Amino acid sequence: MASKDKIIVNKPIYVKALMSKTAGSIVEAALKRDPHEAEFIQLVQEAVHALERVIAKNTQ
C-alpha cells in the first residue's frame, strides 16, 4: 500500500533563480549562495552574459 504522505522538496535558491529566467536573478542567487567563491561568481557572470540573449528570449 502506498503512503499517502506528501513529500515536500525545497528547491535550492539557484534552481528557483533559473526557473524565473532572468539574468540578474541567476547572478544574485549565486552571490547569495556562495558569496565567498569569487571564481565561481565570475564564472556564473560570464555564463549568464554568454546566454543573455537566450535567457531574454525565453522570458517573453
Describe the structure.
- This is NADP-specific glutamate dehydrogenase.
- The chain is mainly α.
- The chain is built from four helices and no strands.
- It has one domain (13-59).
What does this entry show, briefly?
Helix content is 67%, strand content 0%. The chain has helices at residues 13-20, 23-33, 38-50, 52-59.
Poorly predicted spans: none
- What is the average of the pLDDT values? 76
Helix/strand/pairing category: mainly alpha
Overall tally of domains: 1
**Portion of residues within helices:** 55-70%
Span from first to last CA? 44 Å
- Roughly what fraction of the amino acids lie in strands? under 5%
C-alpha-based Rg, rounded: 15 Å
SS element count, helices: 4
What is the chain-wise order of helices and strands? HHHH
* Shape, per Cα inertia axes: flat
Q: Would you report the number of β strands?
A: 0
Described by strand count, sense and barrel closure, the largest sheet is: none
Protein name: NADP-specific glutamate dehydrogenase
GO molecular function, one term: glutamate dehydrogenase (NADP+) activity
Question: How is the topology of this model organized?
Answer:
Layout: H1 13-20, H2 23-33, H3 38-50, H4 52-59
Helix pairs in contact: 1-2, 2-3
Notable features of this structure?
single chain, 60 residues, mainly alpha
